[in-house]
Amino acid sequence: MSQKKKKILLTRRWPAAVEQALQHLVGPEVALVTLNTSDKPLSEAQLIAALADYDIIGATVTDQLSAAVFAAQPKPRCQLIANFGVGVNHIDLAAATAQGIAVTNTPGVLTDATAELALTLLLMSARRAAEGERHVRARAWTGWR
């Protein structure tokens, strides 16, 4: 009795290490992985087709998975949308749940980066760093003053 292979779609380019791990660690005997090598956002029609054709969709913020997209497939094959990012406001969670599709994300991955950027902006403002950088690039700096 052969088990049906899982089909996985990454809707956009992900970090190379993730794509390689997905293709090699999962292995073709377990799952068939499709990469969107064009790295262009999928259309609504392509997303609807993906829900019917794939078990797992690795989505990004550019994938507008609206209630209409989910409603177009009365019984989708898709069981999981693994979102590459923290926010899920581009996915209608209620519509996904109604179709029996689990949605995951990557919470907390931007916390440190956001805090670091906020601190950088505060320091840049306090020390007038952007103004100084523009001054040097314009070759207007003539010495310490």
Short précis:
This protein is of the alpha/beta class and 145 residues long. Helices cover 40% and strands 14% of the residues. It has six helices and five strands; from the N terminus they run E-H-E-H-E-H-E-H-E-H-H.
Verbal overview:
It is a single chain. This protein has helices at 16-26, 44-53, 67-71, 93-98, 111-127, 129-137, and strands spanning 6-10, 31-35, 56-59, 80-83, 102-104. With 145 residues, it is of the alpha/beta class. The protein has a five-stranded parallel sheet, with helices on both faces. The model has no long low-confidence stretch (mean pLDDT 91).
What are the salient characteristics of this protein?
5-stranded parallel β-sheet, single chain, 40% helix, alpha/beta, elongated, 6 helices, 5 strands, 145 residues
> What is the string of SSEs from the N terminus onward?
EHEHEHEHEHH
Classify the beta-strand content into a percent band.
5-15%
Q: What's the β-strand tally?
A: 5
Shape: elongated
| Cross-sheet strand order for the largest sheet | 2-1-3-4-5
Compute the CA-based radius of gyration. 22 Å
What structural class do you assign from the helix and strand content? alpha/beta
Largest sheet report: 5 strands, parallel
Number of helices: 6
**N- to C-terminal distance:** 81 Å
| Residue-averaged pLDDT | 91
**Helical residues, percent:** 40-55%
Q: Which stretches are low in confidence, meaning pLDDT under 50 for 5 or more residues running?
A: none
